[in-house]
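fold-stage: in
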Amino acid sequence: MRAVKFTGAAVVAVIIVIALLLVVGIPSGFLTSTIASRVEQASGYRLSIDGTTKISLWPTLNVALSDLTLQNPKDRSGITRLTIERVQVDMSLSSAWSGRPKISEIVVTHPVLYLPMLRDRLPNADASPAALAPDMDGATIDRFKISNGEVAFSRVRDRVDSRITAINADAIMGRDRTIKVTGTARISEHPTRFDIKATTPAPPVERQTTPVDFVIDMPDVLSSQLAGHAELRLNGPMVMINGVNGTLGDGAFNGWASVDIASKPLVKVDLDFQRLTIPLAKSPEGATAQPWSDAPIDVSGLNYVDAQIRISANEAIIGQARLAPLALDAKLAGGILKTGTANLGAYGGQVSGEMILDATSGAPSFAMHSDIVGVRALPLLQGLAEFDRVDGKMQAKLALRSAGPSQRALMANMQGTAFVTFQDGAIRGINVAQMIRSLTTSKLSGWQDSEAGSTEQSTDLSQLSASFRIDKGQAVTTDFNLVGPLVRITGAGTIALDTKMLGFRVEPKLVMTTEGQGRTSEPVGFGIPVMISGSWSQPQIYPDMSGMMDNPDAAYAKLREMGKGLFGPDGAGLGNMLSNLGGNFGLGGAAPGGGNAAGSANPQMKLPGPDSPLGQAIGNMIQQGLSNSPLSTPPGTGIRSRGLPGTPTTPAPQASPAPPTQAPSTQAQPTQDQPTQDPPVAQQDSQPMNDVMRQLFNR
């Protein structure tokens, strides 16, 4: 890169300064102009010395210069420059007198290399001086050290300033032209350690191959140590890196690369890995309940480099997910990154897609589309997103786009469509059928997971599918469908991506036999729609009674169907239902008169009355729905609810069904001559509730 070339020029300039000092002798202030002139003549770079120049002769010859600035005279902006706080050189006095100086050490303190950041590549922009081929005249250097160096990338117009800081390097040069460099630095706040060994050719180095061995360790970025070998060759502004091979962890790789540093850097990379490991940061405990981050996402650096990258791997491990094979192509130009893959193998299926990231404006935007076919969902979702609830063969089509400077903004601006289906799998850790049955007694809070996160409970599914239309972060579906051996759920709802909230209205059905769906008994409805609303991790699940009260006639019809929905036609499924609930409600008694209490044709089945335990449970559920309904009216007010027809104030000519009493076995049978009167309403009851119970149980 330009930084390598510029740094080499700086080193040569420092050596020339030292040689001049040795030739001239003890320096004084008037010699600085002479030194600067000789440096520019030999290297093409302009040197200014604004500090002091000192020489010490004891115990060794020591030369020290301070406040140096080295610039390219063809750079009118003045941005490209090297500043050095202090340079110190140690050598033996005898070698200096002999005319072949043997420099034992050069220490450069706080050098800062300033490089501009360009948004566009400029034609014929190689304004670098001619290649350097200094004549060292027999001088040798044993050690070169950099202390607290920096590389500053800046663009004043965009107010961008990025730095590589805390550069500490120690280079040892051997007599056979070998150079060993070890050091540390911080790249974008990521600590980095590097170890480089190279054999330099005899001058001039232009178009000659330099073999380089390297080891790079970046614990925050790379999963393991990167080690390899390459052959470096300079050709004007082009840096060619051929014969690249090495290892990343336990995976070998090979390929080539090149960097054009004429103006805006153009990087080309083609690498093939046996195994590529890309770690993903694990979410903290309870992260699903935490809001999206408002921390800014900075991708502005994509504007200042162009790239063409191809990465292939026999096996890629991303997070905990294993993908094989991998073939990824990426092109970065003008701040727009396009990546795509046409043949990505994943757990028995295939993934293809493309993503476009636009970093040209202050708020980055992206668009993507992807097709997933026949992939086993559990290991893929668990490895990439730490989601382990659903297993099965997954098929999905995604077309999404968004823009925003943070996670929350990206989610709030999300638009597009998504379709996903899972087949022949299971919902892990949740028993959906048991959840539905639990709704007959109370509202549920949360997904009713197994204890201690165990996945022993599960719900087998034949298919789980839904399609979503997403607008401004709201994902809406009208065709949610879950089909399992013992449960079927259809519904519609909305998922708020920005707030991690959801609201669904579903119609659950249960299979009351062990034969499963499609046999002699079809799934029977719960009878009442179920609402699922709240946060993703802890939603509230409850019957939608208020929605039923909007239309009284339909409400009565729904409540009558509720008996069939819960207990099967004519109550035939009640025994199975109660067996699943583990209760004993004294079924099997015949109603007086030879029929059952509900008027069923089944003489052996009597539906429970409101005073039975199951009847009370259903009554509590309905009472809770009525109390939450805006159409309900507190008891004792004398005002009838607009959502329910009121009870006549005078008895009808025909006897009405008597309400349940505390008698355990029989009830007084009214006659036509003695119409019955409703008993006084208890304080905790409501008149609409009594009407509902009469209609529900036909009493």
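fold-stage: in (second)
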Amino acid sequence: MRTEDVLAAIATGLWRWDNASGTVTLDSEAARLLGLPAEPVVLPEVAVRSRFHPVDWNEINGIVNLAVAEDTLAEARLRIMDEDGRVLRTVRSRSKPLENRTADGRVDYELIGTIQEIAEAQPGTTAVHTPITGDWRRSREAFLLDAGRALAEARSTAEVLRVAASLSMPGFIPDGLAVFGVSGDRLSIIGHHGHDPGDEGPFADMPLQTDYPAAEVVRTGRAIYLPSPDDYKRRFPATWPLARRFDRISWAFLPLIVAGRTMGAWMAAFKHPVSFSPDERSVLTTVARMLAQALQRAGVAESERELTTGLQRSMMPQLGPEIPGMTLAARYVPTGGGLQVGGDWYDMIPLPSGRFALVIGDVQGHDVRAAGLMGQLRIAVRAYASEGHRPDAVLSRASRFLAGLCSEQDSAADPGKGGGLDGGDSDFQSPRFATCLYVECDPATGLLEVARAGHPDPAVRMADGTVLMRPTAGGLPLGIVPDTDYPTTRFTLEPGETMMLCTDGLIETGGHDLDTGWARLRAILESQTPDPAQDTDPEPRHLERLADLLVQAVHGPSSHHTTGPLADRREDDIAVVLLCREGEGCGCETPLLHPSRPARRTMTTVAQAEPERVAGVRQQIRELLHDWADPEQVDAAVLMVSEMLTNVLVHTDGDALLIAEAVGELGARRLRVEVADASDELPHKRHPGEMASSGRGVLLLEMLADDWGVDPRGEGKSTWFVLNERSKPDSDPLE
């Protein structure tokens, strides 16, 4: 009996599809199954294509491509349509793609195979989806969309493996997964799911020449499907004893390929039989490709994070030994984009005198060059400080160092000057500057000497929670002018007070400017004042909690609700240092059982050459009296302070020293403000005319202050006034 007769008897036809010529050769049975006259025929591709359901035609293209890639048979179920769009029958096609290379070197394929009718009830309606090509396909597409989204969102290798372990494939769910990686000529297991701890031992490190499916997949780049234990035992007898103990029935090993390079293998094992139909192989192959891309992205991201974290950590110092009577806390957060490196830094430097220095700074930029300059500048500042130089001298030398460093780099980057590895990089050639705040601290007395180079001023939270900005004299940022003077400001950190140093990233991140950013930080600082009567923790970590809260206010979930007016502002690195002088109410020492309300005190010097600082002093007085009940008293205090400072600047040749102190319980506090100068001339009462522009200082003190006076000193004098807090404004005398 001829082969053709046997095939016809079992309703199986033969076909040959030549992709190069665009023709299809059918025998009589294949023609009948396609709804054509039952006779051998050669038809153009378009005539045969019109007989298939459009959805099935699109499906078969992917199946053929998969069979070509895996060198396997292409199997598909196809619905045959008549001229009116009705489904005649469903057939199964099994074919082998053969590669044909044309004379011009182009690669085409020829399919040779069989077509056989499937004996199942037909719906007899137009374009009705069968269970094979309908619901399963929709489930598969939904699964692939979900899997692709989940793998794309995974940011680390561990997250990728967790996503892979949670995948529920439509119709066939693996109960064991393993991912293998390649390092040189060795194969090792990266992660697994569905196995007990220690099961990965025999597979932890294998030569690529091992007779193991994953090793062969990596060597050949082709998937291996093992539908039954017999298949596994027949093809890989050497490693079958290792796989047998897991009681699995079917296995699929697929290559993980990225950019043409096989980076590993993925195993999916099943406790139920799986035939690995073309649709199932298509799903597995698609998942393997997505898994390979996700692992590649995660590996690159982890390498970058490890590099940048190591670089930044090597440049960021530890806060050194404990300081008697003081507590330190610090945080650094790189910007959220790019390589996550930047130019912000902080440092704590022990000094030869027994004191220590706190340094915080910000090199312009958020790139590798900024990080490199930051590291060099930090080392230079530490060296100058360790030599015993005063704060102003440290910053002057640092400015000269940075200016010289940038000029050397510019010369090396300029090809016209004979240098040059990066002559075309304009950003590398551009000069850079840095802001810096240098504070020398005496832990015994709390005396702080501050030199500032274009950096934000420090803020001080007093023992009762009042937060004041401490205006300090300053100069240009480092590196702009090589020889620059940096004046020094002195003030005392009282027991129970906390000083905050930060870079502008903590203030302006989230679209804030300096004013709105400080308002946001002040709210955090004031709201986290410890209550000594309730905090019974013998070793409270209040300062560490406060540092975390400051960062969370900028980068945490709550920051999305406090966006500033400049919403498109670029984000910046953050560095913050907190210094607390231990005392009553600071939260850094054992609380007292019956604490008294601490005094609020501020001291400021206004130089003759800096009359603009009077405005800063007025703001300090308002912050000092932020919770007084009577706003008119606050206005009166600000007016008297402004008048007293202006008199010193106008009528003397020296500087003015202001000391303000508020003591007492809420509602019954007493404010005393003292302004000292070096002049011996005492103020006297005048009678200015209606149009006079001066001469009302003493009159204002008499009218607004509860008490005032002038105290002569050995050199100069001190003018003072006192205000007693009122619980509510006075009634209008005209009523």
